[in-house]
Amino acid sequence: MSGTGAQGVPGPRGTGPDAVEPDAAGRDEAGPRDGGGGGAGRRDRKARRTREAMAAAALRLTLAHGFAALAVEDVTDAADVSRRTFSRHFGSREDAVLDCLRADFARINEALAARPAAESPVAAYRAAVAAWLHDPDPEHPAWHRRPGMRDLFVLIDEEPALTAAFRRISVAEEEQSIRLVAARLGLHPETDLRPAVAVGLGVAALHAATRTWVRDPAGDLPTLLDRAFDLAAAEPPS
């Protein structure tokens, strides 16, 4: 598949056929800009539920019909929100389709931030991935317990727009990991190599294990992750 089609590849916001423009529809307008006051927590939860509903609809429709067939209106209709609400959360179709992965990387970083300071950076990253992998929360299962994830990663490889968006999301969350590790070590995240190298090892292990899991139907993601982190710790890998 090409990722183009009748709707075209999304351009900058407001400039292309897939651009997300605000509208005046009178549907749910909850968005991340809500804030302040005693109801901030309630508004935040409503905005998060709205975002998750749109992301789930975008992913479901993409897996069912392909990314080229997906239009923003398909997502807003399925989630019963306005185009303006979509624009408050996402800049493009691909951002919506891949939002579940952004959220997963963010959960790994949340777990990383909570790791004991005495742990080495690579050990802390490995433990954070393990915490996400084995989290019993039924609403946010890890990839091997979530239907359709292998198919999503295949689409990411095939669709240039999804490939680029996944790269952007991955880099942004990796930068956050580097900042967290730098803070743990008391180092500068931009000028000291050590945080970036440590996080790079952990991220490489995560992506290598995921790549093999996607391509091997018999692969077990937890086992592959353990093996990948063991290899990352070996000098040299063997």
Please provide a written account of the structure.
- This protein has 238 residues and is mainly alpha-helical.
- The protein is 61% helix and 0% strand.
- Helix 7 packs across helix 9.
- The model is unreliable at 1-36 (pLDDT under 50).
Question: How would you summarize this macromolecular structure in one to three sentences?
Answer:
The chain is built from ten helices and no strands. By secondary structure, it is mainly α.
**Major sheet: size, sense and barrel closure?**
none
Please report the number of helical segments.
10
Helicity, as a percent range:
55-70%
For the record, give the distance between the C-alpha atoms at the N and C termini, rounded to a whole number.
37 Å
Rg calc: 19 Å
The succession of helices and strands, N to C, reads: HHHHHHHHHH
Task: Report the β-strand fraction as a percent range.
Answer: under 5%
Mean pLDDT: 87
Number of strands: 0
Uncertain segments are 1-36
Shape: globular
Structural class: mainly alpha
